[in-house]
Amino acid sequence: MEIVYLDGQKVNIVEPICSAIGFFDGLHIGHMALVNEVKRVSEQKGYKKALMTFDHYPLYVLGKIKEEKYLTSMNDRISLLEKEGLDYLFIVKFTKEVAALSPEDFINQYLIDLHVKHIVCGFDFRFGKYNAGNTMTLQACQQFNVSVIPEVLYKGEKISSTRIRHVLEQGNIEEMNELLGRKYCVSGEVIKGRRIGHAIGFPTANVDYQSYFLPCHGVYIVKVYVHGQGYMGMCNIGYNPTFTALDKPSLEVNILDFDGDIYHQYMIVEFYCLIRKEKPFASKEELIAQLYEDKQKVREYFKPQDKCPMV
Ligand SMILES: Cc1cc2nc3c(=O)[nH]c(=O)nc-3n(C[C@H](O)[C@H](O)[C@H](O)COP(=O)(O)O)c2cc1C
Ligand SMILES: Nc1ncnc2c1ncn2[C@@H]1O[C@H](COP(=O)(O)OP(=O)(O)O)[C@@H](O)[C@H]1O
């Protein structure tokens, strides 16, 4: 998959393209319906398969929200889309100038100039200054065809990034994983902490989670991947209130059956289930006793189940 940053410069692509367009934070099963339509149309018409996304939230660029928090980092989006076999990922450098483009100017500069012959978008897609462009604006263009994907439902309700954030705030990882159609992950570099982990016999790899929107504070059963090797782990997200509380929550994993130095390595944390809330313990001995119990839960979770006898 070729990654093409669109920053207003001319791009020299001459092949006809079918592209999905949207922000695609989370790449949930609703988003995947758009990706599947891109594949279907491209195979039928012989177009190149593409997806167009943006490097920043429009509301952040316009100063209407102070912090950027994403369900998926750009790296996550790139690697997930790579697996889908797309030919191009267009990343629009979203600036105040791009936000100020009229829907017609956006179409001319970003779609027609790229030889997009078919656009795939969600039923509620809006774009251009004042969000004035919608699916009908796209459908009115002669230069390309448009597939509008209806809302994808889960348990009778529309799947959206907002709903997914709410599910994460509840720590409902099982539902999160169903909405994503894959395991929910956070990844980043392993950074230094306060070295308390080693001192209490439970070293923890602290992840630099940057702009991720995190699940609620608590203890989770996870798997981690370092250099492609997977391990069971227990993850804590929170302020470590048993000690002097941190001023920013940490995301840290005690990796089972592992002993090695992984500072500055890239680690993927794959979430399975919340086991309890983080809490202050009266002593470090009480915390340690709880950590042994948490570890046991992780082992039980991943223990191969006895096969059910055939009935
Ligand atoms: C599975 C797990 C559960 C944890 N639960 C709690 C908790 O309930 N309360 C708490 O104060 N700290 C909890 N911690 C955090 C420890 O206090 C923390 O790992 C320790 O301070 C090490 O931090 P360091 O990486 O900065 O050395 C937990 C850590 C792990 C790995
Ligand atoms: N089983 C393990 N789980 C997590 N990290 C481990 C483990 N064994 C060794 N380490 C290493 O130890 C570091 C964590 O030790 P810790 O004392 O908690 O230090 P810090 O406070 O800097 O995170 C990790 O970043 C990793 O490099």
From TrEMBL:
Looking up InterPro entries in the UniProt record yields: FAD_synthase (IPR015864), Riboflavin_kinase (IPR023468), Riboflavin_kinase_bac (IPR002606), Riboflavin_kinase_bac/euk (IPR015865), Riboflavin_kinase_dom_sf (IPR023465), Rossmann-like_a/b/a_fold (IPR014729)
A GO MF annotation of the entry reads: ATP binding
Reaction(s) catalysed (UniProt annotation): FMN + ATP + H(+) = FAD + diphosphate; riboflavin + ATP = FMN + ADP + H(+)
Per the UniProt entry, the Enzyme Commission number(s) are 2.7.1.26, 2.7.7.2
Q: In which pathway does it act?
A: Cofactor biosynthesis; FMN biosynthesis; FMN from riboflavin (ATP route): step 1/1; Cofactor biosynthesis; FAD biosynthesis; FAD from FMN: step 1/1
Superkingdom of the source species:
Bacteria
Which keywords annotate this record? ATP-binding, FAD, Flavoprotein, FMN, Kinase, Multifunctional enzyme, Nucleotide-binding, Nucleotidyltransferase, Transferase
- Domain Riboflavin kinase: where? 179-303
Q: Name one GO biological process term.
A: riboflavin biosynthetic process
**Broadest EC class assigned to this enzyme:** transferase
- Record has Lipoprotein as a keyword: no
The family classification in the record reads:
Belongs to the ribF family.
PANTHER family for the chain: RIBOFLAVIN KINASE, RIBOFLAVIN KINASE/FMN ADENYLYLTRANSFERASE
Q: NCBIfam families under this entry?
A: PRK05627.1-5, ribF
Protein name from the UniProt record: Riboflavin biosynthesis protein
